[in-house]
Amino acid sequence: MGEVKPNEEEESNAFLQLAECELKVDAIEKDVAQYRLDKMKSVYQERDGLVNKIPEFWKIVLSQHTDFANYIRASDFTYVDCIQDVKVEWDNVDEFKIIIKFDGIKDDFEAQTVTKQFKRQKIIDDTKSKEDSDSDDDDDELEKLISEPVDIKWPKKYEDICPESIQDKKSPEGKKKYRQGMKSLFGWFRWTGLKPGKEFPHGDSFAELIVDDLYPYCVKYYTEAHRDLEDENDDSDSESEGELDLSDDEGNENEPKRRKL
Description:
This protein is an alpha+beta fold. The chain contains nine helices and four strands; from the N terminus they run αααβββαβααααα. The chain has a four-stranded antiparallel β-sheet with strand order 1-2-3-4.
């Protein structure tokens, strides 16, 4: 006897119930994430105080993290080295702020602390056709990370690419300088998530890198980077003494290169 197939109504109801199950899963996962944030809050605060006692902690973490460098211009590392402190504070799982404290550079860059607020909210997916958008379900809504522009004082060396300083943004030269400025670390502070192609590229991914990876695991990255730097110094000492070991050169040639301090 062949297998009895459910009729179309039963199949449709099954899909609806599956969708309801997924909503329950999402709600539980959000509750778990909120519970973790609540439990970790005091630990992060204690750790922030200890990190502040370690010289160049964030300089080492940020300059040696392989993904961080992919988001900003190479010249930005002059000012990344000025970052004295990075903090993340959560209002809830969907809203948080990133606080970055910069030291200054004489006659170029002013010391300042900048706070950028973020939130996740549902927006209409404008990539769908009108027919799809007219449906009664909520499938045309996407959860997206957005922010608001925040004031930051740009370095004097970046004055020619600072958006406020560009008089003619429509000329070829003005457009070029504007794009350069918006691709810099300082352009990220103007990112909103609402102007694709006209602001810092992948600003949401950059924020999530800080919130989900760099800040929670900063001690691990510092330890790894510090160990690597010590190994490099040991290698340099060996080379200065005339010793040369090429046994691992072939196996390591494809490893990502980190910025040297």
